[in-house]
Amino acid sequence: MVLLNLQEFCNEWPHVAQVVEIQEANSTCTIHWYKGANSNNWKPCSKPVRGKKGRKREPWILLQLFMEIILTDLDTPDRTSEEVFTESPYTTVMATETDEISSFQIVMDNLNMMTKVRHKTEDTSNKMHNLVHALAVQDRVSADDLEECVPQADILTIPNEAFLPSKVDYTQLNQEYNILIQRVLVENIIELKECKEFVIYHIPHQFSKESRKKSCVIPLGILEKDENKTEEMIEIIEHLHQYTPKAHDKMMPLLMGGDGLSVERGEGAQKARADGISQEDRLEGFIWKSEDWHAHVISLQDTFNQLFKGTSSPEKGTLFQLRNLFEHRGVKSEVKDVVNSCRDFLRFVTQGYVILAALNVLNMHSVNDIEESLSTKTKGEKKTFMENLSKNMVSKFLQTETPSLKQKGHGNKINKENLKLPIEDGQNYRLQKITEIEKTLINERDKRKSLYKKYKRGVNVTDGVDTSLISTSVVLAGIGIAFPILLPIQIAAVVCGSLGGLVKLIRRKLTTKSKKHYEIKTMAECKLNSIKDLISKSLTDGQISADEFKLILDELEKFNEMKKKKK
After folding, report:
1. Is Membrane set as a keyword in this record (predicted)?
2. What are the DSSP calls for 421-464, one per residue?
3. For residues 279 and 289, what is the distance between their CA atoms, to the nearest angstrom?
4. Among 49, 253, 400, 566, which is disulfide-ready with 35 (CB 3.0 to 4.6 Å)?
5. pTM of the model
6. Which residues are paired to 93 by β-bridges?
7. Least confident of 63-72, 194-203, 337-346, 508-517
8. Among candidate residues 406, 132, 126, 117, the one with its CA nearest the CA of residue 259
């Protein structure tokens, strides 16, 4: 029998006082629920007891986590009840036989919970519990058959085309474009909905069979540790080292997934112990990686940084204009705050553009025109129409051909210069970029100059208002002193003085703003002057060396860094 004693848990949250008793026999378990404020008056009940209406229920969530940890993998062979124990009210440790798992990885994340007290006193206050939980995820596709040796080759013997997508890659990409377009067509054109059975909703690949299997996830417990502290992050990694497999007394590192901050803190902990003697001391049991969801959010953020701008709201068809037109008010520029809304909105816009592309290919003006043309066709004819339409759309808007790069030389005696792009292409690219850089700096200078003038004008106006209020206040105060019975005049003098203080505050903010824009304008002018000769020379003779081009790029980067500091 395993008894998970939550006495401390119950004392802190008496309205959700429960304990779980698990009995194991022949890989079975029975759950008994209890209720009560303390262990002396626990009474059996038929189902879990939650807090009364209006009370906080976060402890119930924590109790669910305890249940999930204890009840997971009860049918594991050779697992005895002594393998589960508690280190703290929030910590459980499960001894899992990692040798039985062919390959797996661990995922961890922080788990923060705020407990609020009803009455704050000197001894009691709100408390933030910083916890860490981890999961072991079995790999559905094993990588054991891959060789560990690193390929060795002379970079000069590898053709340039080896680093570019091949014809096979582009052919497969275009086929997948067809599938994605057909999905949009059957979802948004009524007459094509009956062709859903012909659309592929899972693009097959070599691991399709393995991917259909249910994920095997094993909770590894909750640790009462704060990953923001390096010493506690080290303790977390040392605790999770027990799951790292070994071969011939040598650790076989596992992949450790987490969000960007967790990965950064984990790598920081490894660096802090880099002078350790053994692998365990150096925390070399894990290779850190960011999880796909966080990479997805970063990709979405990059897309919104490029395409979602408030200045584009008057332009028809831009993301910001479409967001306002179709009232997707939940969409924000900070994707991490509203990930689902941003993802759904981008999918909505993409589907709209696919339908517009279909109308363009068919030379029609509305979806109703497509539906009318399909109303008399059979199911087979509709299928053929859909397939031909998607192919025409890909060939017109998305078709990509394999580029070819000329490479001279043979064997190991290839001249490094031959591996570069043709000189004409390189010169054209550099000239185009420096023209864009010059235009960017000029626009920045003009923009800051205009903003500086506006804020300076505001400063001058506030100066005049402040002077007038001070004069008025002095005059009214003098009249009030001379004629004490004129109370309204005295009140007016006080009001003028107060308004003068407010105007001074506004003036101070406007002065700060004008100073910032003036400094950025000056920086833009300095950078323009520093690269002016190079730009003029290159635009005159049409030639610019790689060193000169790098110098211009460095100047632009310095300007951007200085501008960020000013902000």
Report:
1. yes
2. PPHHHHHHHHHHHHHHHHHHHHHHHHHHHHHHHHHHHHHHHHHH
3. 19
4. 49
5. 0.52
6. 85
7. 63-72
8. 132
Q: What is the pLDDT of residues 2-61, one digit of tens each?
A: 333 444 444 444 433 344 433 333 333 344 444 444 445 545 554 444 444 434 333 333
Distance CA(444)–CA(525), nearest Å, equals 9
Structural domain containing residue 46: 1-95
- Distance from C-alpha of 557 to C-alpha of 118, rounded to nearest angstrom: 53
Task: Tell me: pLDDT of 559 over 70.
Answer: yes
From CA 287, how far away is CA 143, in angstroms rounded? 15
Residue 262 falls within a domain, yes or no? Answer: yes
Torsion of CA 529, 534, 538, 540, to 10 degrees: 60
Q: Are residues 106 and 242 in the same domain?
A: yes
| Structure confidence by residue, pLDDT tens digits, 189-245 | 888 888 888 999 999 888 898 888 888 999 999 999 999 999 999 999 999 999 999
Give first-to-last CA distance, the chain, whole Å: 62
Residues contacting 318, CB < 8 A, separation 6+: 307, 309, 312
Encoded tokens for 42: 């626990």
Whether residue 548 sits in one domain with residue 432: yes
Q: What is the 3-state secondary structure (H, E, C) of 80-149?
A: CHHHEEEEECCEEEECCCHHHCCCEEEEEEEEEEEECCCCCCCCCCCEEEEEEEEEEEECCCCCCCCCCC
CA 113 to each of CA 54, 118, 258, 301: distance values in angstroms, whole numbers, following the listed order: 18, 16, 19, 27
From CA 150, how far away is CA 114, in angstroms rounded? 48
CA distance 99 to 344: 42
One DSSP character per residue, 383-425 reads HHHHHHHHHHHIIIII------------TT---GGGGSPPHHH
Q: Are residues 109 and 5 in the same domain?
A: no
Burial 384-416 (b: 16+ CB within 10 A, else e): ebbeebbbebbeeeeeeeeeeeeeeeeeeebee
Q: How many Å apart are CA 223 and CA 239, to the nearest integer? A: 9
Q: How far apart are CA 187 and CA 107, in angstroms?
A: 36
User: What's the pLDDT score for residue 55?
Assistant: 40
- pLDDT of 452 reads 82
Cβ atoms 496, 476 nearer than 8 A: yes
